[in-house]
Amino acid sequence: MRWLMRSVVAGCAEIERDAAIMPQAPAESFPLIAAIDLGSNSFHMVLAKADNHEIRVLERIGDKVQLAAGLDDERQLSEEAMQRGLDCLRRFAQFTNSLPEGAVRIVGTNALREARNRAVFIRRAEEILGHQVEVISGREEARLIYLGVSHSIADTPGKRLVADIGGGSTEFIIGQRFEPLLRESLQMGCVSFTQRYFKDGKITPARYAQAYTAARLELMGIEQGLRRLGWEDAVGASGTIKAIGLATKAAGLGNGEVTVEGLAWLKRKLFKLGEVEKIDLDGIKPDRRGIFPAGLAILEAIFDACDIQRMSHSEGALREGVLYDLLGRHQHEDVRERTLAAFMERYHVDTDQAARVEAKALSALDKVASDWGLTDVWHRELLSWGAKVHEVGLDIAHYQYHKHGAYLIEHSDLAGFSRQDQQMLALLVRGHRRNIPKDKFADFGEEGIKLMRLCVLLRFAILFHHIRGTQDMPQVQFKVGDDSLEIVFPEGWLAANPLTQADFEAEAEWLKRIDLTLSVR
Q1: Region 435-461 average pLDDT
Q2: Measured between alpha carbons, how far is 334 from 25 in angstroms, rounded to an integer?
Q3: How far apart are CA 502 and CA 225, in angstroms?
């Protein structure tokens, strides 16, 4: 596998580096845990102590970075926007640098999802924070928002609609108690809409109507689904919704909740002021004034599309959800395991075979982990996941089912998994049989070496159990080098099992293509 040691060529500069890192998920709890939300409008950090399945917040820090405002027409983040974000992260780093690996989870949202050069920012952010950065999908963001909200408000039995207006996207969730039933994410946010409709700070009825109409058009694709499922209460989970509620409360229009009457009053007030600079209302902080008209237009569109009369506010949102999700991983309540179980059921995976392959793959990992540098928690997690789902593509077609499976894994919404997780898992599934796409492994740089070795172990376990069943299989020994793998079977066993012998002889030819020498005796 010497080819993997070469530097990634310049033509690979656009490859997503954010796909090259797998987050840690240790089994033990930590005295302190932290969540950092790299939002399109604001960056936030929450430092907390976990105590008896609950979280006690010790510190909250936030800053209006407006990362999304730095995206140009080519979806490139400007150096100025990146510097604003990095300056903020240097302050966060004073709290996180002393925390061990696995105690901090950092998630990037819509601005980083959109940015073509996000790898540059992520690399610099990781150098400052000392922890890995994940970019999460819109629906995963929605799941985490709901988790944060559901732990922050009364545990009522009915369904609730949660809306979170961010800087670049708006998330919608209908859930009951702690379980989301529907998750959606739309490409509209208070920063992106400000850039589009209120960039010069002028507020006119015509511009407001354009922003409102754009939001209604975005909502058309999901509003029927929301209405069909229904809800009893509507909850807002963002700074925009909180600011609107506080502004109307200061005007004597309610107790902090958002109402139709309050929205109408605020809209008239903004039209009368005419400029962002003149917004000086109680409840609206100076650093929110510039994006306030866009946020108001989006929220009015949500009220009209969903026929909402009243919306309360939750202090809990994405970062609190990240903390509770992290806590669940520590306490063996990992949503990723439930997600994969449902995924396997959906695509009719042979769970007995998956369990056999998983056990053998992890057993092999234990024997070679030290020599092959596969000692991190995520190595074991990824190999386990790959063994469980390597056959999902069979539900599509037998021909090239490894490619079908890789596509399903990479492009499905898998709760609990970041984009990085899914891309790496998809690559293992893609490479578990026949030709190994060495160029795709090379895209991961030095991490590709470890991914390749995990793939080889997965392939071994699959071949070992190629003849399905519960028949007794022999114990084998492994001898590994940087570019070699020797598997030693009990004397005479291979001669008595010629199909297995033929399988491994064919495998040796496949592995030659990646400069790995496989010998079996």
Answers
A1: 91
A2: 9
A3: 53
What's at 49, amino acid-wise?
Answer: K
In three state form, how does the secondary structure of 349-394 look? Answer: CCHHHHHHHHHHHHHHHHHHHHHHCCCCHHHHHHHHHHHHHCCHHH
Q: What is the DSSP letter of 401?
A: H
Question: In this structure, what DSSP letter does residue 106 have?
Answer: E
Counts for the chain of helices (H) and strands (E), in that order = 20, 14
Phi and psi angles of residue 159, each rounded to the nearest 5 degrees, phi first: -80, 150
The C-alpha atoms of residue 247 and residue 305 are separated, in whole angstroms, by 23
Quick one: which of 445, 434, 456, 444 has its CA closest to 510?
A: 434
CA–CA–CA angle 355, 357, 358 (5° rounding): 60
CB 376 within 8 A of CB 24: yes
Rounded distance, CA 218 to CA 164, Å? 15
CA distances to 199, 273, 275, 279, 292 from 202, rounded to whole Å, are 8, 9, 5, 11, 12
Q: 3-class SS at 56?
A: strand
Q: How do strand 33-38 and strand 104-108 relate by DSSP bridges? A: parallel
- For 155, phi then psi, to 5°, come to -85, 80
Q: Is residue 7 predicted with pLDDT exceeding 80?
A: no
CA 257 to chain centre: 30
Q: For 295-318, write each residue's pLDDT tens digit.
A: 999 999 999 999 999 999 998 899
Six-digit token pair at 426? 């998809």
Assigned token pair, 100: 């061990």
What is the distance between the alpha carbons of residues 386 and 395, in angstroms, rounded to a whole number? 16
Contact 453, 411 (CB under 8 A): no
- pLDDT tier, 29 (very low <50, low <70, confident <90, very high otherwise): low
Give this prediction's pTM.
0.76
User: CA separation (Å) from 265 to 36, 165, 249, 363, 399?
Assistant: 35, 20, 11, 66, 62
Whole-angstrom distance, CA of residue 155 vs CA of residue 150: 7
| Local structure of 2: helix, strand or coil | helix
Q: What are phi and psi of 185, to 5 degrees?
A: -140, 125
CA distances from 460 to 431, 433, 488, 518 (A): 12, 10, 13, 11
Which helix or strand (DSSP H or E) is residue 234 part of? strand 233-236
In this structure, the strands spanning 179-186 and 310-313 are unpaired
Q: What is the pLDDT of residue 353?
A: 93
What's the rounded Cα separation, in Å, for the pair 22 and 424?
Answer: 8
Q: How confident is the model at residue 52 (pLDDT cuts 50, 70, 90)?
A: low
Does the pLDDT at position 19 exceed 60?
A: no
- Lowest mean pLDDT segment, chosen from 10-19, 82-91, 365-374, 421-430: 10-19
Phi, psi of 464 (to 5 degrees): -60, -35
CA distance 388 to 410: 15
8 Å CB contact between 39 and 322: no
Nearest to 145 by CA among 97, 102, 100, 184: 184
